[in-house]
Amino acid sequence: MSTTDRVLLLLDDPTGLASVGIRSVDPDSEHVSVLDLGVTRGDGIFEALDAINGVAQSLEPHLARMARSAALLDLPKPSLDVYRAAVASAITESTSSHLLVKLVMTRGIEGGTATTGWVYAEPVGDFTAARRDGLRVITLDRGYRHDVAHTSPWLLQGAKTLSYAVNKAAVREANRRDADDVIFLSSDGYVLEGPNSTVILQFGSHFVTPATDQGILAGTAQAAFFEFCDASGNSTEYRRVTPDELVAADSVWLASSVRQLVPVRELDGVPRGFDRAVSAAALEYLLGRRR
Amino acid sequence: MSTTDRVLLLLDDPTGLASVGIRSVDPDSEHVSVLDLGVTRGDGIFEALDAINGVAQSLEPHLARMARSAALLDLPKPSLDVYRAAVASAITESTSSHLLVKLVMTRGIEGGTATTGWVYAEPVGDFTAARRDGLRVITLDRGYRHDVAHTSPWLLQGAKTLSYAVNKAAVREANRRDADDVIFLSSDGYVLEGPNSTVILQFGSHFVTPATDQGILAGTAQAAFFEFCDASGNSTEYRRVTPDELVAADSVWLASSVRQLVPVRELDGVPRGFDRAVSAAALEYLLGRRR
Fold first, then answer.
1. Interface predicted TM-score (ipTM)
2. Kindly report the CA angle at A82 between A80 and A88, in degrees rounded to 5?
3. Would you give the DSSP letter of residue B118?
4. DSSP assignment of B160-185, as one string?
5. Rg for chain B (alpha carbons), in Å?
6. Which of A81, A229, B57, B276 fits a 20 to 30 Å CA distance from A198?
7. Residue of A14, A13, A31, A124 lying closest to A69 (CA atoms)
8. pTM over the 0.90 mark
9. Which domains does chain A have, with CATH numbers?
10. Cα–Cα nearest to A144, from A175, A100, A185
11. What angle do CA A199, A204, A205 make, to 5 degrees?
């Protein structure tokens, strides 16, 4: 990757209150303080999205989710205008037409009052094989009950935070078990989400995803998948899902912004099928999003 | 705080394999990349300790715990020699005689192979009032069963990671409830630890702390407190502790490296007493540690 297809934009003030300044800097230099709570405590939030041919996909749902994450963490309100402008600048500045764009906001330097924020864009990787052939996925205990976001909001479930070490550890556990990715289960036996994805199940022409009142993220790619379902005359539903339904379903997918849509071809070591026609058509719809 | 009493030392290679170089840099400049997994995922580990009159307190237990955290996160082994040397340099370089020293290691730049590490030292704050008069503490659900470190090690309980957003959120919840700090309970009803401290209970001449096989950190200040107990002819025990024991105990303390020892003077809104003589004597012992 060259430095012209990678873009780093620092925000003078992520809240936009003191300044709406956006500065393009060298992504290979250091721009974060060791005193920043983003690094010392993982105390911040992020979003990641695809920008294809100049279009930041599902930008507004991502910005809305970022605002929700900020509220869950009692962070100052991010200026969605500033982040929107920075995303647009990153897309314009980069020489690449297919970008992964990350939006970050931290609580800033410990003891200070200013937040830290940036937008970073780089060319996305190639997910062709995973999208076509599927992934080997294991289910892992997330340790929390499905209702923990309601009973114990300080656990920050449902917020997209920089404290993602557990999500990385879960994927390493999958790799140790000769698998590629993870579907988390609640301690009381419900299907939650992947470390970086939303779970979608197919039962004939009915498509189901775990309800977001279970301390999980509202998936932006999954929402677009449901649009695709609605447009093609299928039915969709948000509800509780049990692990045996992951076995019984005609297809299981993991939807996320960058990988977009990958089918599950093996679950907990057992091969499973998926609807290749629906998978290909939905992927085409997701990649073709113009907003 | 001046820049001469604050010291930031960057490690050329935290594993010590490629280099044992240590560079002193301006702590007010930026030295971390936005691509560092320490900030993008809270994917790293840390330790914090007190250095009083040239002595890094409980340095060896802190280094041993850092090595355990690295193993739990599948990080490369940190070079304890390099961190030991950096701590010594920080103490020598600073003009302050009472320092908070932080040791950090991250997984480094995403996609790279090198870890990132530094040691930072600054003068400690003043905890006189809290140590003498105590804190108002609330109990909060940690969401996990007490045995989750055994059943689900990918949840990283028992590792001191940079993914500490939940710990910060818990303290904000305490502040919302007009309290100062938190004692976490497991979802199945055991006393765990504070967001940044170890819980110690006194029953006459018997001192108890929650067993570390419950996904909680081995406390370095608590270990020194138990040395004090042993030396003064009292008995000590690691075991399961239930919330009603926090009410029944003669005293409850929170032990940690920087605040050292603070008594709990109010629990969940109810005033409670503590043994002022033991509290003062133990604090004096902790502050006087020469190793």
1. 0.95
2. 100
3. E
4. -BS--HHHHHHHHHHHHTT-SEEEEE
5. 19
6. A81
7. A14
8. yes
9. 7-123 (3.30.470.10), 128-287 (3.20.10.10)
10. A185
11. 85
Q: Strand B98-106's sheet: what is its strand order?
A: B22-25, B7-11, B116-123, B98-106, B44-52, B55-56
The one-letter amino acid code at B39 reads V
For residues B205 and B232, give the distance between their C-alpha atoms in angstroms, rounded to a whole number.
10
- Tokens (6 digits) for B169: 């959120």
Q: Give pLDDT tens digits for B220-267.
A: 999 999 999 999 999 999 999 999 999 999 999 999 999 999 999 999
For residue A46, list chain B residues with Cβ-Cβ distance below 8 A: 40
| CB proximity under 8 Å: B 3-22 to A | 8
The residue whose two tokens read 């205990």 is A141
Residues 176-235 of A with CB under 8 A from B: 187
What was the pLDDT predicted at B185? Answer: 98
Residue that the structure tokens 């920087």 belong to:
B258
Report d(CA B161, CA B41) in Å as an integer.
Answer: 11
Residues in B closer than 8 angstroms to A168, CB to CB, are: 37, 41, 43, 107
pLDDT of residue B290: 87
Q: Residue A21: is its pLDDT beyond 60?
A: yes
